[in-house]
């Protein structure tokens, strides 16, 4: 059976079955299978990245090592407790329990200091009862001897006392008769006085009733006036509340009107700004169209002028065919140069237009490239954000799992503590029950001793009473009865030895001493 110390920590198929190891796991609220190593491949998942898999593996491995360390500490504590119990007197306690057939709690209860004190109290109470009974019986015996000695003297004086008692009875009868007459006269006077007082009290009661009725009428009138005044005040307050409510309603309507007006002004302002923006855009479009049209008209005008010049040149050439060759050549050169300049101007304008279109196309391409780069950066940011959220979700799940494991472990630990406390309470209850039974037995012995003492005293009194009734006093017979009563086991320490057999450890029982 592998224990927490001897099992292979890196073996996924290891089994912990040692009794002390299982007890330590139960005490710490840890399941044995939670201490077995889980390889990295056990955390593979199709939807789990290697990074999250490594995080999950590290979390469960660290948790397993923490639980293993706690379980090993608990096992070491159990081993040290067992070692201390072996070195203590528990072996002797177990031996006594085996010999006597009682439980350890019963033996501890019977040999406890409380029962020792109870036995000492019982012995002291027995001595007290014995002393009290001895003194009481000796007192009764002394009284009996006094009665025996005074019996003869009293019999001589009895006749004289009877005569004196007769004379005192006669005088007492006369005094009682006089006292009865005085009491009767006082009783009649008292009845007359009470009747007069009742008549006066009745008249006073009627007078108070009339005053009370008048006062009630006045109070009712005042209450009615106060009620009418309260009704008027309430009506006035309701009127004020209605006016306040109407005022609040009017203020609310005014506020809503102002809000509507402000919203209308804002809407008009927004429409006006939109119109201005649209007019500005329209103005820009018109200016651009006008510039383009101006450029086109200029080119057309130049072409028309060139065409007209060419026609003039041809017309003049046909008219002035006969002029000089040099003039014609000079004019042709001049026309050719003018045509070249016009063509160059047209080509220059075309190049400028192409350059402007190329720059606009480059600017548009740059804007598109910038947009693509921004979109790429956003995609990278979203991917990073998604990876961070996955990591955070996994971390939160591991935290929740850690909290769940701790809660389950605390619950199992509390269950183990409750079981241990229940076992200890059961042992203590057993010890207390035996202690109560022993104390009840000693209390019964004390009550029996008290009852025996009272019974002995009652028997002695009955004997004295019988002798007094018979007027035959015999003190020697009473002395013999007293000696027989004092020899009873209830008034000595023998009652503890003869009533119950208590197993003791190391001679701790009072009777064994």
> Helix count?
8
- Helical coverage, percent range: over 70%
Strand content: under 5%
- Please state the average pLDDT score: 77
Q: Secondary-structure element sequence?
A: HHHHHHHH
Strand elements, count: 0
How does the helix and strand content classify structurally? Answer: mainly alpha
The unreliable regions are: 498-513
Rounded Rg:
65 Å
| Terminal Cα span | 50 Å
Shape: elongated
Q: Tell me about the biggest sheet?
A: none
Description:
Residues 381-415 form a coiled coil. Residues 208-263, 306-325 are annotated as: Disordered. Keywords: Coiled coil. By secondary structure, this protein is mainly α. It has a domain at 1-88. Helix content is 85%, strand content 0%. The chain contains eight helices and no strands. It has helices at residues 19-28, 50-87, 90-100, 104-110, 113-319, 325-470, 475-486, 494-499. The chain is elongated and about 220 Å long.
Set out the fold topology.
Layout: H1 19-28, H2 50-87, H3 90-100, H4 104-110, H5 113-319, H6 325-470, H7 475-486, H8 494-499
Notable characteristics:
single chain, 513 residues, 85% helix, disordered C terminus, KDM1B protein, coiled coil
Q: Gist?
A:
The protein is mainly alpha-helical and 513 residues long.
């Amino acid at each position: 059976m592998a224990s927490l110390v001897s099992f292979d920590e890196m073996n996924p198929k290891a089994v912990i079955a040692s009794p002390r190891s299982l007890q330590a796991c139960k005490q710490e609220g840890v399941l044995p299978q939670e201490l077995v190593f889980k390889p990295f491949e056990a955390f593979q998942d199709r939807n789990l990245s290697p990074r999250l898999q490594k995080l999950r593996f590290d979390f469960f491995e660290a948790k397993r090592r923490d639980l293993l360390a706690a379980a090993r500490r608990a096992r070491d504590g159990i081993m040290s407790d067992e070692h201390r119990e072996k070195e203590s007197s528990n072996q002797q306690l177990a031996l006594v329990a085996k010999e006597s057939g009682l439980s350890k709690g019963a033996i501890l209860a019977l040999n406890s200091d409380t029962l020792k004190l109870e036995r000492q109290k019982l012995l002291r109470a027995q001595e007290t009862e014995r002393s009290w009974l001895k003194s009481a019986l000796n007192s009764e015996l002394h009284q009996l001897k006094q009665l025996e000695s005074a019996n003869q003297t009293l019999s001589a004086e009895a006749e004289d006392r009877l005569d004196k008692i007769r004379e005192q009875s006669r005088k007492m009868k006369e005094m009682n008769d006089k006292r009865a007459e005085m009491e009767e006269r006082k009783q009649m006077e008292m009845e007359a006085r009470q009747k007069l007082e009742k008549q006066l009290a009745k008249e006073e009661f009627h007078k108070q009733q009339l005053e009370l009725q008048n006062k009630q009428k006045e109070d009712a009138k005042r209450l009615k006036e106060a009620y009418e005044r309260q009704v008027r005040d309430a009506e006035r307050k309701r009127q004020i509340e209605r006016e306040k409510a109407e005022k609040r309603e009017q203020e609310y309507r005014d506020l809503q009107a102002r809000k509507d007006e402000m919203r209308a002004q804002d809407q008009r302002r927004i429409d006006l700004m939109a119109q201005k923006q649209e007019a500005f855009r329209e103005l820009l479009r018109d200016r651009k169209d006008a510039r383009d049209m101006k450029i086109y008209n200029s080119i057309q005008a130049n072409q028309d002028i060139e065409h007209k010049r060419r026609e003039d040149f041809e017309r003049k050439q046909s008219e002035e065919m006969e002029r000089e060759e040099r003039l014609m050549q000079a004019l042709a050169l001049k026309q050719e140069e003018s045509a070249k300049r016009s063509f160059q101007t047209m080509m220059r304008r075309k190049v400028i237009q192409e350059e402007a279109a190329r720059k606009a196309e480059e600017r548009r391409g740059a804007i598109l490239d910038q947009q693509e780069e921004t979109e790429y950066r956003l995609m990278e940011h979203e991917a990073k954000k998604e990876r961070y959220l996955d990591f955070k979700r996994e971390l939160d799940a591991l935290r929740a799992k850690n909290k769940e494991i701790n809660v389950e472990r605390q619950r199992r630990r509390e269950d183990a503590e409750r079981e241990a406390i229940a076992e200890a309470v059961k042992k203590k209850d057993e010890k207390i029950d035996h202690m109560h039974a022993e104390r009840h037995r000693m209390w019964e012995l004390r009550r029996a001793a008290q009852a025996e003492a009272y019974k002995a005293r009652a028997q002695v009194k009955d004997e004295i009473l019988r002798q007094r009734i018979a007027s035959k006093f015999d003190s020697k017979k009473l002395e013999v009865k007293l000696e027989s009563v004092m020899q009873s086991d209830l008034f000595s320490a023998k009652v503890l030895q003869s009533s119950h057999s208590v197993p003791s450890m190391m001679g701790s029982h009072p009777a064994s001493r």
